[in-house]
Design brief:
The chain contains 16 helices and 18 strands. By secondary structure, the protein is an alpha+beta fold. The radius of gyration is 21 Å and the shape is globular. The relative contact order is 0.19.
């Protein structure tokens, strides 16, 4: 392995198409040879690929900062994404004390109780989505279910028109996987402009007439007697949409793909739905949706045998940590009832994913509905298309499938989208 200035060098580009197809083998090699290594891509950054270092860095916010800022030349620096997104994710890209009041607001909105209160609604919209395809014997498991449902429920929480879900879902379906500078990324940025305009209108309306939704909670909240600025409101709302729209889609799509290949695991879940919590954690570990998150060092620090300087960028390779043989027995094997399962799919430390409860609930609802109503589905593998890039999120653009046709069962709700 190449060494330069005492640094082990790896050709690690998480947005490269080859990385999306070869990451399992490359991650295993990195964990064995250089669990802390340097990549020259995107202005340069360290890659942490082993569980112990990834978990330690994720929990040490004082040394590995999530904050972002505008550099002297006007460019974005720091944050949790390499290269940085066009907007700051709030509170994910804040450190204490600024992080605390925003996170407290989101903790209340996405608590276990608040999420469980949405379960019936999620089940009803799932029924509607499946009813639309049930008599045909054909469905796209991503485009017809796994993509729309998380978007619909996210808009329900925020108090936005549900029929607008495609406009919110498509850009955030593209942003995590689009290769920098690609046509897909440009299309995503155009869609993001539409989202920002809609959110701005909704926030302004709620300031003058609050309702019981999340947008109202944000615009009426105060920190030390002051409301959030318009910019802060926009950052918080974009964080919720970005976190809610695509990551659960990724997890569910991976699970559908896995069960298509493993009849034994499919049969176990059909016969024993009570196994779903353990299975959910194993799907999260084995098919980690959010592949990585990034930090910036605040001081010189030694980790994994390497000396990192202050203000250096660090990528926490969660997907690799979740396949670490030191942390998980038979790490490269999917074990549907694995326990314990201390995976890092939701991160660790204070930035543990605030939407974890919501993701688990939506996964449970969609998986049980499909295994009940489309138990013999078969993916048309030649037509399924995975993301080109796993730069932020791993996932599937589309996943057509066929099944034995059934009958609609009807819903107490309606969906005009």
């Amino acid at each position: 392995m190449e060494q330069r200035g005492g640094k082990p060098i790896v050709d690690f580009d998480h947005f490269a198409e080859a990385h999306a197809r070869e990451w399992v083998e490359r991650a295993k090699s990195m964990r064995g040879q250089c669990p802390v290594a340097w990549s020259d891509h995107y202005k340069g950054f360290w890659v942490l690929s082993r569980y112990r270092e990834v978990a330690a860095a994720a929990k040490d916010w004082r040394t590995f900062s999530s904050a972002r800022w505008v550099g002297p030349d006007g460019t974005l620096e720091g944050g949790t994404v390499i290269p940085p997104l066009l907007f700051r994710m709030n509170p994910d890209e804040l450190d204490p004390p600024e992080w605390k009041p925003v996170r407290a607001l989101m903790n209340r909105a996405f608590s276990t109780g608040a999420v469980e209160a949405l379960r019936w609604t999620a089940e009803e919209y799932t029924t509607i989505l499946l009813d639309r395809r049930i008599t045909s014997g054909h469905i796209d498991l991503v485009l017809d279910l796994a993509n729309p449902l998380p978007a619909i429920i996210t808009l329900e929480i925020m108090g936005l028109p549900l029929e607008d879900w495609p406009g919110y879902a498509e850009p955030f379906h593209l942003i995590p996987s689009a290769i920098p500078g690609s046509e897909e990324q440009l299309r995503a940025f155009k869609g993001l402009e539409w989202i920002i305009a809609r959110l701005g209108e909704a926030a302004a309306a709620r300031r003058s007439r609050p309702e019981g939704d999340f947008i109202s909670q944000v615009v009426t909240a105060e920190v030390d007697g002051k409301p959030f600025s318009d910019q802060e409101v926009m950052e918080i709302l974009l964080q919720v949409i970005g976190g809610g729209v695509d990551t659960t889609t990724s997890l569910v799509a991976h699970a559908f793909w896995h069960l298509n290949a493993s009849e034994a695991d499919r049969r176990r879940l059909i016969d024993n739905p009570c196994l779903m919590p353990e299975a959910t954690d194993e799907f999260l570990r084995f098919y980690t949706p959010v592949h990585s998150s990034s930090r910036t060092t605040t001081r010189d620090v030694e980790i994994g045998g390497q000396r990192l300087g202050s203000k250096e960028r660090v990528l926490l390779f969660f997907a690799s940590a979740n396949r670490d043989e030191e942390a998980f027995a038979n790490a490269d094997r999917f074990v549907i009832d694995r326990a314990p399962n201390r995976h890092l799919a939701f991160g660790a430390g204070m930035h543990l994913c605030v939407g974890a409860h919501l993701a688990r609930m939506l996964f449970d609802v969609m998986m049980k509905a499909v295994l009940t109503r489309l138990p013999d589905y078969r993916i048309i593998e030649a037509e399924a298309r995975p993301y080109k890039s796993y730069g932020g999120v791993s996932g599937w653009d589309k996943m057509p499938a066929k099944f034995t046709p059934g009958q609609p069962i009807g819903s107490a709700l309606t969906l005009n989208a």
